[in-house]
Amino acid sequence: MKIQMNLVAAAAVALLAGAVHAEDLVVKIGHVGPTSGGIAHLGKDNENGARMAIDELNAKGVMIGGKKAKFELLAEDDAADPKQGTAAAQKLVDEKVNGVIGHLNSGTTIPASKIYSDAGIPQISPSATNPKYTRQGFKTTFRVVADDVHLGGTLGKYAVTTLKGKTIAVIDDRTAYGQGVADEFEKGVKAAGGKVVKREFTNDKATDFTAILTSIKGTKPDLVFYGGMDAVAGPMLRQMKQLGLSAKFMGGDGICTGELPKLAAGTMADDQVVCAEAGGIDDKDKAAVKAMEDFRAKFKKKFGADVQIYAPYVYDATNVMVAAMEKAGSADPAKYLPVLAKTTGYKGVTGVISFDEKGDIKNGALTLYTYKAGQKTALGVVH
């Protein structure tokens, strides 16, 4: 009889545990980036940043509205292609995700943003810098990096005032990101009193730049700016060397990766490349520097790879979104979206995050980099 009672009690405990587990709140976070194609290394970097945040949140036991949240990452590949990007966005909407982190490229982020907006699903991009993204009037769009107006304009001014560029050539890959950052760079050059003597374009899958570079060489430029990603910038640098074009080479965050020296096949000379990465931490802020160093160490231990560029921003974007859910006491997009929009003073590994009325980060920082002995080396942080 006693054994029977113990069995009944055990069954009751198991049923109770099952009921508690059933009451857990499942929160689906979507992530989209190019995990195939020429910049798959950047897409995987982003996805890993999201995965790290999700794993840590689950280990922490986050409570939302009195329920323990169980976070699920729904990762999609957009191959940096706008059509595939919108298909991925629709798939996540159909999966009824609670929020989306992504996309990586402006060219996929912008068309996808309408789909999320129509569904009322908050979207935080960790890396899309084209100004149009947050200027469409959507209430669901946010980003945690400075936009091209700031990034391209700062690089344009730096090219003229610091690098003393007198004859400047500009190339872009005709994507939303590449052309956008090149346009802003050109405006920055002109505003600083500089002159762009040549403007050329290619595409994001090109491998031969002989004709473009030969045409540019005729203008004897002392600086070449490329708006695009590292997968094209690397071969372009190789071909510049082959043609005896020793001009300084500048670009935005798309080229500012640890992979660039490898893609350039070691043809880069020290200090030849200057690029800017949206975001950055002032060396004087010791606590912030340590937080980023700790993140990079944890990331390498978990994934066996160094951070490329955006993983910390994805990590912060995921945590900012979840912090809004906690504060709102709900993972329902309609309920936590107004709280997310009012985010101010959130301390992430990439710095302090506050959103303005458009969903842009306030006082976004930029870090300028060069390369020495094949290693990315910081020149300084500007706001």
SS-based structural class?
alpha/beta
- Spatial shape: elongated
Main sheet overview: 7 strands, mixed
The parts where pLDDT drops under 50 for at least 5 residues are: 1-20
Order of helices and strands: HEHEEHEHEEHEHEHEHEHEHHHEEEE
Radius of gyration: 23 Å
User: How many distinct beta strands?
Assistant: 15
Pfam families: Peripla_BP_6
Keywords: Amino-acid transport, Signal, Transport
Protein name: Branched-chain amino acid ABC transporter substrate-binding protein
Family: Belongs to the leucine-binding protein family.
Overview of this protein structure:
There is one protein chain. The protein has helices spanning 2-22, 40-60, 82-94, 106-119, 148-161, 176-191, 210-217, 230-242, 260-263, 286-303, 311-328, 333-341; strands at residues 25-33, 63-64, 67-77, 99-102, 123-125, 141-143, 168-172, 196-201, 223-227, 248-251, 273-278, 346-348, 351-353, 366-372, 375-382. The protein contains 12 helices and 15 strands. Helix 3 packs parallel to helix 4 (106-119). 44% of the residues lie in helices and 21% in strands. The chain has 2 domains: 8-146 and 287-364, Rossmann fold (3-Layer(aba) Sandwich); 149-278, Rossmann fold, CATH 3.40.50. The protein is of the alpha/beta class and 383 residues long. Strand 9, helix 8 (230-242) and strand 10 form a beta-alpha-beta unit. Keywords: Amino-acid transport, Signal, Transport. Residues 1-22 form the signal peptide. Belongs to the leucine-binding protein family. Residues 27-374 form the Leucine-binding protein domain.
